[in-house]
Amino acid sequence: MSPKETTAWVDLQSHAYYMSQSHISTLFSESPNRFAQFGFTQDNLLLDLSKQRITDETLNLLIELAKERNLPNWIESLFKGDHINDSEDRPALHTALRTPKGTTLEVDGVEIIEEVHQNLERMEAIVKKIHSGQWRGFTGHSINTVVNIGVGGSDLGPLMACKALAEYQPEEAQNLTVHFVSSMDGSQLADLLSHLNPARTLFVISSKSFTTIDTLANANTAKEWLKQAGNTASEEVLVSRHFIGVSASPDKALSWGIPKSNQLAFWDWTGGRYSMWSTIGLPIALKLGMKGFREVLAGAHNMDTHFRETPLEQNLPVLIAMVGIWNINFLNINAHAILPYDGRLNHLPAYLEQLEMESNGKSVTRKGKATDYNTCPILWGEVGTNAQHAFYQLLHQGTESVMCDFIVAAKRYHDTDNSELMHQHQLNLANCLAQSRILALGDTVIKGAENAPAYKRYKGNQPCTTLLLDELTPHTFGQIIAMYEHKVFVQSVIWDINPFDQWGVELGKKVATTLLDALSPNASTEDFDASTQGLLQHISMRNK
Ligand code: F6P
User: 3-68+310-495: which CATH architecture?
Assistant: First the structure.
């Protein structure tokens, strides 16, 4: 049944007709207690939905909609390992990757939690070998630099985590620098290689499929660089001393040259963008130590338990998802800004862009029917205070309605004696609170603003969510990322789409292959459209 045929959807439509006339500032004057009404806590997180354009009735109807869409059953199917990724006929078991030891979960006849922990132990052994200086390069020197080569889910999560949690780097990891390379054009790698010592550099080739051309191209360049530096060592020695492969396709990694002893595996039931909890998290473990990585996993597991066990009415991922549904499908808001007020979370917007848009950027249902309702909005974002000097103009005075997520830690720099740094935290908090206040309430926050000329007015009414963490720690970091993962899942259930495949990225890969052929000298271009032909000819002329 289409979500539009549910009673709750129909009721939400009538309710939206009335609510779309209302302003968030009026909702606050009518109900000054909104914070108590729409503030929800879980462990060290506070989710403030009071600056959304909602009332009690809105939330009740949204929860009804979730129930009519059988959300509780879907949640169980996710955790139990049912084949809910139907187009690829497999489960989506990222939650199993953070399930503590001692739990049992049999999927398709295999006990997987035990396997998950065996993999973590192999990972731990490698991390220890590198940290202790026992992993030696081709000259016999220890490793002091790790370069993760991967893209999408094999890059963004570890990159984000390493930046976000850098201050938790333990003593034993202090001498190790971790870099990330993803871009197909080689520009990141070329820049980086010129500063690195081949004898002390280890490359982690992270690719679920081990067929991604971006990653393989960078890996080949890295191998070539090492061959040139270590010309007396055989390729076999160079690869075994300087490359680790992390993949769900061990045979492909082996064919590329990485021996099984240098490989860390994971499973095809781990989606690429859900994989940082698996051995794809190796760079995180190298940066934070295994203890830190396990804390991230524990934070995510804490959110999993909350998601699975808490009534929908108090369930953070469910609430944030359903309020998104309200904005998208009933208030017709199709842009979503991710605004971390924390420089450590500067990669969070890019991470969520992939998580949300690659998961739910779909327009056919699980049964292959075109949806006649909107699905994933366009997401983008930036560190909030930087964005204030860039695109906030549009948020405040443009024509687009945009829903905004503000993410901020209440506590920071408490162990510093630099009072200026502490002041910077206060400044940051003040700006975060000021911006969500103006975006939601408009210039009603300033007395007499109604007398200002039109170009100085702020209309407000942009729905804002604030996610306030006590502190950014490995644990809270794990919690918030898992919360967003589950949010995406909940929305997919409402929209009746499969969030775990990504067929929309395949055609580009095929067409690029034909264009690669067309770029070779004297290749025929006649099968291409006029624009592509013209561009190919221009490129060819410029390269003569
Ligand atoms: O092309 C999209 C994609 O498949 C993403 O889903 C994935 O995270 C990324 O490419 C990298 O894939 P792989 O880990 O297989 O190299």
Answer: 3-Layer(aba) Sandwich (3.40)
